[in-house]
Structure formats: structure tokens, C-alpha cells
Amino acid sequence: MKARARLRDLVDIPARLADRVVLITGGNAGIGRSTALAAAECGMKVVIAARRAEQGQAVVDEIRERGGEATYVSTDVTSAEQVERAVDIAVRAYGRLDCAFNNAGASATGRVADLTEDVFDGAMAVNARGLWLCMKHELHTMTEAGTGSIVNNISVHGYRTVFPGVGAYAASKNAAVALTRSAALEYAEFGVRVNGIAPGPIATDMYLNSVTADEGAANWSRLVPAGRVGEPSEVGAVVLFLLSDAASYVNGQVVGIDGGFLAS
């Protein structure tokens, strides 16, 4: 019975996350919104950092209507000042920062020779430099506390170039993998874990728009052994596990959430 009780405690993710403070970039829609709502259901205090104020505040209002605690802060992850401000507001509002889900991302399409500098630089600015800025300020706060957990939203494109026209996006996501693993190595001794997730096709506006815009993306689900597109809630469940200390020995990993795509 004691062994069963210990196992039950281990897998009780909500209990392991209750009262912890999480910052979620891009928490206003899609995977970020779904994860924010799930985090609040677990009793976490949620800080939504996103550019679209109306959407971000709507998520906060929904969490509060359900009895949770949440705060919105207008944040463009390409701005060092705004990222630092978001982390500072989280700490001022709730006293600390325990967890972060760096979910903000930017898509980019075009064959390598046809890419404009603006498209390439835009993808790198959000998906690589923006991710680095978020981790930079989150890590400063977490290392001072001696504990913390970060999850970065990467993509299966960080490992495989799925179809033509995603060179800039894939380059930025490969950089995100390297940043995630480097941070995990460098900050483990300070009690901070850094992991990533690599979603395949997920039913979000970003995915649905890419299907409309790019004929290659329309074949996505055919490449997935599961034969379907994933749901944002399926991603959020893995994020919350990685943020919790049920995953206390998981560090420097990028977990595929892809219906078996990377294994195929």
C-alpha cells in the first residue's frame, strides 16, 4: 500500500504544481492558451506574456472566472526590455517565478534562395533570439532561488525538414534545440531544469493557416503514423509534466509530441 501511495503521489501532477508560478509566452492562443488554462486548473498562478492584449486578457479573464489566478503582461519576445519586464512583473505579482513555458513562435515560409532577409531575420528573431532572451531573464531569477523548470516549444522541424519551403523556420528551431540543451547543461548545478517539446501538426490557427498557405503542409497528417493532427491539450499535458517535479530527473531533453512522426 505504501508503494502504491508513493506512485500515486508521483503521478499526481496537479498536486505537484499547485501554487507554483508559471510564465507562458504566447499564452494568448493555441498551445499557449490551452496550457495556461490547464496550468490554472492545477492551481498554478499564471502570467500570460503575449503581444495581442485583447486575446491575452481574455485568457486571464477566463482563468479568473474559473477561480484561478492570472495576470497579463504585454510582451514582444524580441524586446529585451519587455521580456525582462514580464519576468519582473511575475515576481512582483506572485513573489517568485517557479516555471516558464517559452511558447511564443513565428512561422516562415519560402525556399532558401527565395527567402527575403526580413523573413529569415524574423524567424530567427522570435524563435532563436527571443527564446534566448526569455531564458536569459528566467534563468537569472530561477538561479537566485535555486530551483526552477523551463520548457521550450520547439518543433519536429528542429530535427527533420518535413517539406520544402521551411528552411528559415527549421534553422531557427535547430538553434532552439541547441539553446535548450546548452542551458540544461549550464544550469543543472543551480537546481534549474530546461527541456523542450517538439510538436508535430497540432490543431491551432498557425497550423491551419499553414495548411491553407502551403500545399506541402496539407500532406502533414499523412506523414504521421497516428493518422491525425494533435490537439493543443495533448501538448499541454506533456508541458505540465515536464514543468513538475514528477520529471525531476528529466533535463536537456526535447520530447516529441507528434503521433510517432519522428520515429517513422
TrEMBL record:
It comes from Streptomyces canarius. Belongs to the short-chain dehydrogenases/reductases (SDR) family. Coiled coil: none annotated. This is Short chain dehydrogenase. Pfam families: adh_short_C2. Residues 20-200 form the Ketoreductase domain.
